[in-house]
Amino acid sequence: LAGQTPYQKQKTVLSPPASLPPAERRRASPGVMAALQVGHEACAMAGVRPADPASVFASSGGDGRICHAICSALASGDTMISPTQFHNSVHNAISGYWGIAAAAMTPSSVVSAYDGSFSAGLLEAMTLLVSEQRPVLLIACDSDYPHPLYDARPVPDTFAVALLLTATPHPGKTIAQLDFCGDSLFT
Questions:
Q1: CA–CA separation, 118 and 138 (whole Å)
Q2: pTM score
Q3: How far apart, in whole angstroms, are the C-alpha atoms of residue 170 and residue 144?
């Protein structure tokens, strides 16, 4: 991203999150794996226990591969859809996996606003930060869609980014400051 080495296109390599129990780890989709990885990394960088912050998850849609599998099954006349696939297809599944992985009992929101999902997530995270007076973890993620869904929603690969937002800077831990309406957020 800094331009120090040429970009080489390759698929994201993900590992099942060790923070999940084995049954959930086996069911974790690429989007879940990416979201949990960046969420844990953001908390570690900030020196915050993953269970402590409120959380906001932003995604432009559900899991692309699972949505494709469900649509393909329905189009073929097969109405027997896996309950596991169905519950993993929706955009709010990641919030549930985070709650399990982080043992989080804090407030959590999920937003989906197509191309405005990150912005909607940031707005929701700022609102939670002010109303809850606690750090807020924002995780934005999406996964790729196979063809023909890719033609309508061209997400080329799984992607996730996490920001741990606080109202006050943490010495030695703050990497950015966001200013809005005269107030500041730190990440």
A1: 9
A2: 0.87
A3: 35
